[in-house]
Specification:
Number of domains: 1
Order of helices and strands: HHHHHHHHHHHHHH
Oligomer: single chain
């Protein structure tokens, strides 16, 4: 006979998993279609060609904008960065693209909208976009160009095509979105399972001990904890939703997401091919700065 307390925890876990599924799966299907549609009209090669012509200043804003609207996989994002650096693009401009790409993208925006609502999503986009530009401007003034490795990364291009016929582009986007959905769905599923387990089984007092309002180091700790936990943005946000529903402040939760998205282990490994230890440390420090600042701002506003 299963104890009543365990039964209640399992029921709560199952109910929360269903709740997340109802919210996230339809939104993820919509986001997958948008990803496919943007890839049809805006290829990685076009983005790289456009950014090579820009200087710092307005170029940082445009680079951050491209980073936020282009839902490229890592097989394209890092080679675009390498192409920009090897073509002599300013380091600050390149950082603007690099910082905004994982933090402000269609997947994050649409899933955030479903989980946390319009106001938090808009403020998140404005805050992270502004901080990405601010961080890139600071890095651009630090004279760190000598710390970029002279390494050429072969572009393992994602399936991106450009067709002048809109009807064909839509068909390609539908086909691509289905493939993208099934490729990413395991990560979403893992995230929903972990989120449901956190909500139903992990005691709230344990979460409060590390990430609650009583811990003055909760925000920086959340940024650090996000990195080893990160699977993908699709898998990260269900975990974030469970933390928020368990009473963790929204700023701390978003700091956790930013730390994971920006300093994930695969991302750092790929960047180590381009950056030496000094520049890689600067990148990690910039992500920590963005995560902590975002977390503090949201905790103050939504306390």
């Amino acid at each position: 006979m299963i104890p009543t307390e365990i039964q209640n925890s399992l029921i709560a876990t199952g109910e929360y998993f269903i709740q997340l599924s109802i919210i996230l799966i339809p939104l993820f299907i919509i986001a997958s279609f948008l990803v496919g549609l943007i890839r049809e009209y805006l290829s990685p090669e076009r983005v790289e060609k456009s950014l090579k012509k820009r200087d710092e200043g307005t170029g940082n804003f445009i680079a951050a904008f491209f980073g936020s609207i282009t839902p490229f996989c890592s097989c394209s994002t890092i080679p675009i960065l390498a192409g920009l650096l090897q073509a002599g693009a300013p380091l600050g401009l390149s950082f603007a693209f690099l910082l905004s790409s994982p933090l402000v993208n269609w997947i994050a925006i649409i899933l955030l909208l479903g989980l946390f609502g319009l106001n938090i999503t808009i403020l998140y986009v404005i805050t992270t976009f502004t901080l990405a530009i601010t961080g890139s401007l600071i890095v651009g003034r630090m004279n760190l160009e000598k710390h970029v490795k002279d390494v050429r990364i072969k572009t393992n291009k994602c399936n991106t095509t450009t067709n002048p016929k809109h009807s064909q582009n839509i068909k390609n986007a539908l086909t691509g979105s289905l493939s993208f959905f099934w490729d990413m769905f395991p990560y979403l599923l893992i995230g929903m399972i972990i989120g449901a387990l956190i909500h139903g089984i992990v005691p709230e007092n344990i979460l409060d001990l590390f990430l609650g309002t009583e811990n003055p180091l909760a925000v920086p700790l959340a940024v650090v904890l996000g990195a080893p936990v990160y699977i993908s943005m699709e898998g990260m946000l269900p975990i974030a939703a469970a933390l928020a529903d368990s009473g963790i402040p929204i700023g701390t939760v978003l700091a956790f997401v930013i730390g994971g998205a920006g300093v994930s282990i695969p991302n750092v490994i790929m960047l180590s091919k381009l950056f030496d230890k000094t520049l890689l440390t600067v990148y990690i420090g910039t992500i920590v700065f963005v995560g902590m600042t975002t977390g503090i701002i949201f905790n103050i506003l939504y306390m």
